[in-house]
Specification:
heterodimer, A: alpha/beta, 4-stranded antiparallel beta sheet, 10 helices, about 35% helix, B: about 280 residues, mainly alpha, MetI-like fold, about 0% strand, disordered C terminus, binds adenosine-5'-diphosphate, binds magnesium ion
Chain lengths: ~250, ~280
């Protein structure tokens, strides 16, 4: 569980300002949902936290981001270590073209785990945490690409959990899935609460209401409002939040 | 729509004609080659003036030289390919290097042969040999590996790379543990074609590997290959059965190149099947 603090963070892609002076705090072990119209900067915000944003050559980040008190934007930060501590799940499930086992073992192996018994234990534990174990036990040598979309998303979660992160970023993790699979991911998010700090971007407002402790509303790169989920959904303070929640957004 | 269909018909027609010509040549080869075929041709040495000569040293030279040339050029070419695709050097550099590589590819093989001749044979005093020929093949192959390798690597979806980085992999780890394994089937497929191309090379070899064979195999032994032998026998052959020797050589060459291409394809397909690519929903 990590405490995350952003202080006046702005991001530019060349001339385009994608995040504008965003400040927020996430309590350790809580779930923060980020909502807002597409293009408002939700993905950018997540990608600042594991510094994947820097993969865009023209990207520039200003401000301070603290994870457990450490400034992760500092130039001497070990990116591999940071990304190990802050896992990420993407909109389309990412499965490597290997077996189910090798997908989950990918991270631990990167970080030097070689012992087969140890690897097996970690793989089994992570698959159980991701509620995939019962469906794949005894089939771990099968290709990951043979799994359904929902199973692949849970596999991606298992793979992220296998390196023992403290926070997990989820960028619209259910928007490419059928309702049944989406519901299983939602259950998992609720389950992860308390063990991991979770930031989840979603277009599904009901989902945000169901899974999160806190909700932040972003518009055109600005964090308009952030508060307890119940408060945001029942009594938003800002007119724009209310307009978005009631579907009256331009 | 109509226009598209007409072009489709034209290109289909050209393909059919080209295939017919290839088939015709193969039939001619098969007719002469099989008529004078004897398995001992695979184990005997060639004969200059009598009939019944074999192509054993040419076969060994071809396989060994192509294999060694791949061993030299593939790792270096792939290193260039990885650097081009994964190390995102300044864009200007990449464009420049790609142009240079493509330029190199369009240099006629005979010029590559001449350059290698100038450096190794004329410069360092190497004989016309397996060694000089292997180096010529490796030089010829290098830009092709780099360009094709870069193409194959860039076809691995960027989101896989991002998924690996997001797990805390470094760039070099991502290359070794994800990019190269993910691209492996396509690389093996390309290796088959590259093998075939090198096995069929003549121009670069005539004055680097030579048109003779030695009593045994060796780095500095004369290095005539099947393709060169085919050309030599067709144009200068003084043995009574030259027509059949040439055809038999051609047949063996076609067989090992087709074998390499097909073998590579089967190997690649096996890997893909194991990975379940194209497999739909399954438990
Ligand atoms: N790689 C990029 N290069 C240039 N502009 C980008 C890039 N990624 C995102 N943007 C721009 O930044 C803004 C925010 O994008 P993003 O964070 O993806 O929004 P969201 O996830 O909320 O849809 C958008 O205007 C988008 O066009
Ligand atoms: Mg997004």
């Amino acid at each position: 569980m990590a405490a995350i603090t952003m202080e006046r963070v702005s991001v530019w892609y060349g001339r385009v300002k994608a995040l504008n002076d965003v400040s927020l705090e996430v309590e350790p072990g809580s779930v923060l949902a980020l909502i807002g119209p597409s293009g408002c900067g939700k993905s950018t915000l997540l990608r600042v936290l594991n510094r994947l944003v820097e993969r865009t050559p023209a990207a520039r980040v200003a401000g301070r981001v603290l994870i457990d008190g450490h400034d992760i934007l500092a130039p001497d930060v070990d990116l591999a270590l940071l990304r190990r501590r802050v896992g990420m799940i993407f909109q389309r499930p990412v499965s490597f073209p290997f077996s189910i086992f090798d997908n989950v073992a990918y991270g631990p192996r990167l970080h030097g785990m070689k012992n087969p018994h140890q690897l097996r234990r970690v793989v089994e534990g992570s698959l159980k945490q991701a509620a995939l174990w019962d469906e794949v036990r005894g089939k771990l040598r099968r290709p990951a690409h043979g799994l359904s979309g929902g199973q692949q998303q849970r596999l991606a979660l298992a793979r992220a959990l296998a390196v023992n992160p403290e926070a997990i970023l989820m960028d619209e993790p259910t928007s490419s899935l059928d309702p049944g699979s989406a519901a299983r991911i939602e259950e998992l998010v609720v389950h992860l609460k308390g063990q991991y700090t979770v930031l989840i971007v979603t277009h599904n407002l009901q989902q945000a209401a169901r899974v999160s402790d806190f909700t932040g509303f972003l518009d055109r790169g600005q964090l308009i409002e952030l508060g307890e989920t119940s408060q945001i959904f029942t009594a938003p303070r800002d007119r724009r939040t209310e307009a978005y929640l009631t579907g009256q957004f331009e | 729509m109509k226009r598209g269909r007409r072009w489709y018909a034209v290109s289909a027609g050209i393909t059919v004609v080209a295939l017919a010509i290839v088939l015709w040549v193969l039939l001619l080869l098969a007719k002469d080659g099989l008529a004078g075929w004897h398995w001992s041709r695979l184990t005997r040495f060639p004969r200059e003036l009598r009939s019944g000569g074999g192509i054993a040293p040419e076969l060994v030279n071809t396989v060994s030289m192509v294999m060694l040339a791949e061993c030299f050029s593939a790792p270096v070419g792939m290193a260039v390919a990885v650097w081009l695709t994964d190390y995102a050097p300044p864009a200007a550099w990449v464009g420049w290097l790609k142009r240079v590589l493509i330029g190199f590819q369009s240099i006629p093989a005979i010029v590559v042969g001449l350059i290698v001749y100038q450096t190794l044979v004329d410069g360092l005093g190497w004989p016309l040999s397996v060694g000089s020929g292997t180096i010529a093949l490796a030089v010829l192959n290098l830009p092709a590996v780099a360009v094709l390798g870069a193409t194959v690597l860039s076809e691995v979806p960027g989101r896989l790379r991002e998924g690996s980085l997001a797990l805390g992999a470094t760039r070099i780890q991502t290359v070794w543990r994800l990019m190269l394994p993910a691209a492996l089937p396509a690389l093996i497929d390309q290796l088959g074609y590259s093998w075939a191309r090198l096995a069929g090379e003549t121009a670069a070899l005539i004055f680097t590997a030579g048109i003779n064979v030695g009593p045994r195999w060796g780095w500095f032994q004369p290095g005539e290959t099947l393709a060169v032998h085919f050309w030599y026998v067709r144009t200068e052959g003084a043995m009574p059965d030259w027509r059949m020797v040439a055809a038999a050589t051609g047949l063996v060459l076609v067989t090992i190149t087709a074998g390499a291409v097909l073998g590579a394809k089967l190997w690649a397909a096996r890997i893909l099947a194991k990975r379940g690519v194209g497999v739909s929903e399954r438990g």
